[in-house]
Amino acid sequence: xxxxxxxxxxxxxxxxxxxxxxxxxxxxxxxxxxxxxxxxxxxxxxxxxxxxxxxxxxxxxxxxxxxxxxxxxxxxxxxxxxxxxxxxxxxxxxxxxxxxxxxxxxxxxxxxxxxxxxxxxxxxxxxxxxxxxxxxxxxxxxxxxxxxxxxxxxxxxxxxxxxxxxxxxxxxxxxxxxxxxxxxxxxxxxxxxxxxxxxxxxxxxxxxxxxxxxxxxxxxxxxxxxxxxxxxxxxxxxxxxxxxxxxxxxxxxxxxxxxxxxxxxxxxxxxxxxxxxxxxxxxxxxxxxxxxxxxxxxxxxxxxxxxxxxxxxxxxxxxxxxxxxxxxxxxxxxxxxxxxxxxxxxxxxxxxxxxxxxxxxxxxxxxxxxxxxxxxxxxxxxxxxxxxxxxxxxxxxxxxxxxxxxxxxxxxxxxxxxxxxxxxxxxxxxxxxxxxxxxxxxxxxxxxxxxxxxxxxxxxxxxxxxxxxxxxxxxxxxxxxxxxxxxxxxxxxxxxxxxxxxxxx
Length: 505
Known about the structure:
With about 500 residues, the chain is an alpha/beta fold. It is about 35% helix and about 15% strand. The protein has helices at about 40, 45-55, 80-90, 120-130, 140-145, 160-165, 200-210, 225-230, 240-250, 275-280, 290-295, 310-315, 315-320, 365-370, 375-380, 395-400, 405-425, 440-445, 450-460, 465-480, 490-495, 500-505; strands at about 1-10, 15-25, 30-35, 65-70, 100-105, 105-110, 115, 135-140, 150-155, 215, 270, 300, 325-330, 330-335, 340-345, 385-390.
């Protein structure tokens, strides 16, 4: 007795078809899974056996072999429980053999309940691409899977519901795809709550408009974390393509809330400074997305930057440059996107009060130097804007109203981003921060006065080639916010002012 059931797997962010073949032959009762399964897959026999018995279906009293094809690709996770369940019943003639256009995913509880799985979205997209027209999976994953076009998704809460649908006893209702909300209304903290900090607010607006990385330096209590948490609220709404990419990453990580379709808010990740290099980059025994990938199309905020280990910080260099990261482990490798905005905050010295009026700094010059040297020059080069967060004046704190609301800033940012999208149409560039060096001269024309100013600054400060390119990109963004196509002296001067640590070094 034999049955074949379609299922799927996921490697990185790419789904692929998996054929679950079930054969019931003579011999002593036994259950074997072949096809390069991991421990979670091999354990499916016990889960399926209990589910079948508790749902009052017969368990075969002979040898059962389950093959997961292709056999040369490692299968991971408990998502093959449901297709094995269906295959066993079909092989025994308890229900009709599933059609070639049907596929099944889901983890089984011992009582036959279906539990959510990770990676439903990329697998649903792969299913639609492979010609699958009907996908059966746990109800909690239905909303994200329904995003795949041309695919009818049937959510089920128990394996019995799937069996009754296939036998025609009680058809399931297909899930309805949730419409994509291009408005992306921000519901998080608002910039109107921030008092003072005009320079830092402006720097955050520039960073948001061009997708630039930002470092805030200031004493404790100046609102660095408060400012960073409000940055996603002034970023443009996620486009459909960005939302799909972001949701796919969170789906693979198992972080999409149940009943949620496409994610509508830009991610904001803020790992503690004790985070390991592996957790930052991604990995584990099976490659999984790390913090840099979970921040894709959003913000990665690192508070108390010098407190992170050197190894963890150096992990950021390649993702910041390439926008993707490849995680290699013994059992395979996976490539994840990680195009994020890095926002970091740090104190000016170990005690935090160097250069702070009204507060005495207790640190020696050598201690301050060692503290700042925890951040390598190559990493600092990859941060476009350095801004000082100063203590807030009493008048600003006591004011009845705060600063400009996030919605007003967001409109200016959106206008600047629209200019960039029109400018770089067909070039594969979404914002100024992604502008390759080869296109800088074409898209960053300097006024004569700005050219003279940049030459003088370069000779005086000894900027690296990377810093030079980043100054041009920031100046391009400032000019966009000012509605200028040519970068004038005022735009370039503002961009140069955002290289504070270069000046202090």
